[in-house]
Structure formats: structure tokens, C-alpha cells
Amino acid sequence: MNFFLYVLLFPFWLVVTLWTIATHKGRPWNFICEVKRFTKFYANKKQADTTILFPEKNTERPDTQLIKKQLRAFSKISIFETNYGNPKSFRRILIFTGIHGNEFASVTGFFGINKLLKRSNKSVLPNIKLTSPLNIYGYKKNTRFDELGEDLNRNFAKSLNPKIKLQRNLIDNFKPTLVVSFHEGPVNNFLLISEPNTQVQFTNKFLRLTKQQGIILDPFSYLKYPLKTSGLWQKGIFCEVLQRIGSLSSLGMYCQNKGIKCITLETNWNLSLKEREKMQIFILEAILDQKILIN
Fold first, then answer.
1. Which of 67, 134, 142, 212 has the most C-beta neighbours closer than 10 Å?
2. CB 161 within 8 A of CB 150
């Protein structure tokens, strides 16, 4: 099985190696050393687990002790589905937070986001639906996965997991014009991940407004892949092909297939919890800015 996978993936690795030699300043063999991890990842069709590629995405967080003190607030909590803004607006924004349990601020940040939306002028807001937090089990256990051992952002199109089905149903019934997903990870401050069908004009406007809020954009890379534009990983056809080969069906791909704009927001989980929560508020304010909601 692995032998045939190596043969099938050889052209891909040849391209990656040549590309790496051309762009990585004398450090081209890092990618070649990871062939085994990639092959194991693509062989794991059931879960398409990105932690095989990047173990740091499921590491125990350094602020675990702080989070444990806050667990009482979540002891009886369930998934909230809350509506804000003007229900008649043709602009419909669907927000998901707390998808991965070890991304703490994407869970605890719900309260700040909820306050911001409640105190905003309803008449000027678009039609907004906030669904959070999706993975309370993962939050309590300090793990990326839920109680079924699944990643709620994988096998998205076909999974029978109730939480993934909930997300799919909300997308299909609410018919959003924009889906926003809050995450954290090993990034440098802030990164926006944009699907191929999300217009560059939209992402550029968003990044400009984010900078105006004083948020520093990641100038380097995302999970070892260099960024062409600071703070932005704009997925292209090459990435989409790899995702399909690996059965890496994500929320973003599901939206892409339905022609819905989708952005994933990654903040640096090594910042303090308060800093990350504050950053989420600033980012949400940029999303709600009328300048990027015109188109």
C-alpha cells in the first residue's frame, strides 16, 4: 500500500522539491525529510488527520492551568445558536467558534463576541448567526478532537458526526454570503486563510482594516509554507487538488463547493488569553465594517 502511494506521489514530491530549492534559500531538504509523514497522512483516509503532518496542532497548550480555572463556566454549557443584526438583510454572516478544543480563545472568546454583537446597532448590522462553542469536550480535555475522536473540520461533507452535521445544516438552511471560522495555532500573531472563490479585493480590504485596528499580520509562513502576502494564505488550485487527493474535506472546501465565501481566522495561541480574545473582537469589528460588506 505504502509503496504504491510513494509511486503515485513521486511527481508531486519532484515538483515540491524543485519549488523548495528555488524558494527556500539553501534549505530544500526539509520537505523531502517529511515524505513519510505525508504518505502516512494520505493513507489515513478515514480521518485525514493534519496532526500527523503538524503534531504541534494538537499539543498541550501552555495556558492549560489558567483554562482549568474557567471550566466551571462551561460545566453546563451547550452549543449556542444566537442571531443578531437585521434579519431582512441580504448580507448573511455565519460565525463558528470553538471547533478545536485546544484553541482556547476560540472557545472563551464567545462571550466577548456575544457582547459586541448585542451592543451593536441592529439596523446597520447584516443578518448574523453565531454558533459556539462547538467542541466543549475538546476544551475540557485540552485536545483538538471531540468525544468521538474526530476533528470537526475534517471529512466535512460526509461525516455523520452530529456537530459536523449541525454546521452543514446551518450552512444549507441559513444560506450565508460569508462564513467565518475562528481558530488559533502556531502562527505569528494573525493570519487569514481564504478559500479560492473568496475575492482578493475582499481579503485585501479586510487585511487593511485589520492593520488599522493595530493587529500585526504574520509576515512569514503558515505551517512551514511561505506566505506571498503578509497575513494571508490564499488557497490556490494546487492546494485544492492536494486536499481532494487526501480526502481533506474541510469547512472551507464545503463552502467553496457551494459558492460561498469563507475565511478562517488564525491567531497566535502563544499570546496571553486576554490578548487573543481582544484580537478576536478587533477582527470581528473589521468583518462588520460596511466597507467590506458592500460587495
1. 134
2. yes
